[in-house]
Structures are given as C-alpha cells and as structure tokens.
## 1
Amino acid sequence: MGRGLSAQEFIAYAREQMAGIESLLERHRRTGPSCGCGRPLPCPVEETLRNRQEHFSTGIALAERTVQLPVVVPVPVNVGSHSRPRTARFRWCAWLIRRAT
Ligand SMILES: [Zn+2]
C-alpha cells in the first residue's frame, strides 16, 4: 500500500498535469463555429480538460494554503480551581432539594 503525496509532491504533480492540460487545450481553441479539433461546440473534450484544470487549480490553491500547526501538549489543569468547592455546591443543591420538598 502506497503512502499519500505530501503537499509539495501534490503541487509538483498538479503543476505537471496543468502544463499537460494547457498543451492539450491548444488543439481545442475555437476557430469559428466549431472547436479547433473539428467537433461541434461545446466540445466535450475541451469541457473535460477545463474541469481537470479547475480540479488541479483548486487542489494547488488548497495545498499552498496548508499551514503546519504547532503540536499541542496537554497541560495538567486543576479542575474546579476557579469554582466553588464541591462540598459547597453539594450543600447548596441539598438546600434547594430540601426547600422544594
Ligand atoms: Zn475540441
């Protein structure tokens, strides 16, 4: 089982793909009522290539925005240090129960 691409590897791969797509699109320039490849408009090959171009363009934009986040180390926290002691809360609850009954 292979490993996934790193962000840098993906960007390099996607840029290669984009260059290839750009080269292929040269044959599909509109030259009049039909596509440069001779197909009627809209050319399905051109649409497919444009979709792939958009896919890789979006992928590159996302990969370039990826930021390495710092590693968070758990810090021991004194739970309840800023609240009233449990016994005081318990007494208050007990007082409420007694009052309600
Ligand atoms: Zn075409």
Note: The first helix runs from residue 7 to 25.
## 2
Amino acid sequence: MLLIECPYCGARAQIEFTYGGDATLSRPGDLSAVETKEWLDFVYLRENPRGPHIEWWHHSAGCRRWFKVRRDTLSHEISATGTPDSNLGSGSV
Ligand SMILES: [Zn+2]
C-alpha cells in the first residue's frame, strides 16, 4: 500500500487520493493569441517520464484539497509533497 503525505492532513492511504496529472505544465496564454496547435499540445500531449515526476494529487476522500507530489515513476517512492504554491523542483532527472 502506498502512503501519501497530504500537506494538510498527514499520511493517508493512496485509496483516499486521485491522481491529477503533470504539475509542471503551464497553461498557454490568452486563447485568442495562442495558436491552436499550442492548445492541442497542452490539452492532449503528455510526457511519459521515467524517474522523478512532479504531479497533482487530490485528497478526494479527505480534505478535498489539491497538492503537489514528487514521485518516482519507477519505484513509486514519494520524496516530497507540498501545497500548490510549493516548489518541488523540476521533477526530471
Ligand atoms: Zn488532506
């Protein structure tokens, strides 16, 4: 069983959480000023990293807050968690 340290509630079982995707992506600017391809890439294209990755997780069966997790995609080891404004690094090797 994977334990995830919610920055608000403490360590809880993974079953209480929902994965929210890559936390390193930044939303493109104004829709009218951005090329369609840039939006398509933002919405549909994702890296499939091997190693440390910064992710969004939602404590859906707890405090219902979003937070960041640095997780190794090979070992599932979680090396850090933090609030949405925290800097957990780039996540890449
Ligand atoms: Zn929580």
Note: Helices lie at 36-44.
